[in-house]
Structure of LRRNT domain-containing protein:
Amino acid sequence: MLGYVSLLLLLNLSVTGGSKRCPYHCLCYESSDLVDCHSKGFTQVPHGLPHGTWLLDLGGNNLGALQRSTFAGLWSLRILVLSSSGIQLLQPQALSSLSFLEKLDLSHNELRRLPPDFSHSLSSLRELRLDNNYLEHLDLPSLERLESLEKLDLSHNRIETVELGAFRGLSRLRHLYLQGNQLAAVREGMLTMLLGLEVLLLGHNNISTIETEALMSLHSLSLLSLEGNQLKHLKFKTFLNLHTPGTHLLLSGNPWDCDCDLHRVFSKLLSVRHLHVDDYRNVTCYEPAQLAGASLAWVDSQLCVAETATVLVITLTVLVTVVAAIFMAERNRKKNQGKVGTRSESELDLQEK
Ligand SMILES: *[C@@H]1O[C@H](CO)[C@@H](O)[C@H](O)[C@H]1NC(C)=O
Ligand SMILES: *[C@@H]1O[C@H](CO)[C@@H](O)[C@H](O)[C@H]1NC(C)=O
């Protein structure tokens, strides 16, 4: 919005004074077909948009619902800004005829769901912003035709569930932002096919489970953020399944249960060359109560002390038992030998008599 406007000003383009068709209230910039209808109080998409429009900024209006074929005929449109425009609903085919669109900004609206045909004509789209809406679920068909998409921002919605396979059509995706939602688990199958994914932001969700195979297909992942979730434990194998040249992890702000197991998982994570826990100093314990708030980095060498002590006690007990058993056996043997001796003495006595 502002970015686009200042870009226009920087380019110092001249405004057409009606020599070309331009919707009332909007500003149209000659030669490049940039149409600025930002914050003009529109309650529907204005009529009379120039057919050659390349960039259309309709942000900051109050559009409510986008009707079917709203942008019909705008074949040249490459960038469409619809942010902060009070959009609650996309009617079926609302975005049809945008087959050449490369950037779509629908952030800061009131969308609760995406229509099943949302992606049908968006096969050229490279960047999609849907952050700061009210989306709750991602269904399988909604995103499936976004085959050129490189960047998808779904942050700060209310997403609780992602249908398995919802991202499977996104074979070019490099950045996926899902932070600030309500996801409870990262499930196996949720991220398959995202072979080129480089950045996956999952911070500030409600994630308590990451299934062991969930990250397996992410061969290019360089940043995985999981800070501010509900993780208490991790399995080392989950991260060992990340076959990447190098991945940075963010893991602080979780209610870690600091026990010997967790210590072992983190020391393995820290020793694997291609994994980097960038915020390890900020990883703090939540349980047990006596360690609450303590940095894992400070306490981790003591976490296995109790366990070592237990092992020592068991070893000692076994040792003492064994020694005692040997001692007893030896004593019994000697006693029996003594008995044999006594008996033979009395036998001798008898014989003498
Ligand atoms: C977070 O997940 C737990 C289950 O793991 C659930 O009981 C809780 O309601 C969830 N919280 C939110 C805010 O979604
Ligand atoms: C650690 O926490 C402090 C204070 O909350 C913050 O300023 C710092 O950026 C954090 N460091 C990392 C690496 O996250």
In short: The two ends are 126 Å apart (CA to CA). The first strand starts at residue 27 and ends at 29. DSSP finds five helices and 20 strands in the chain. Residues 305-352 form the longest helix (48 residues).
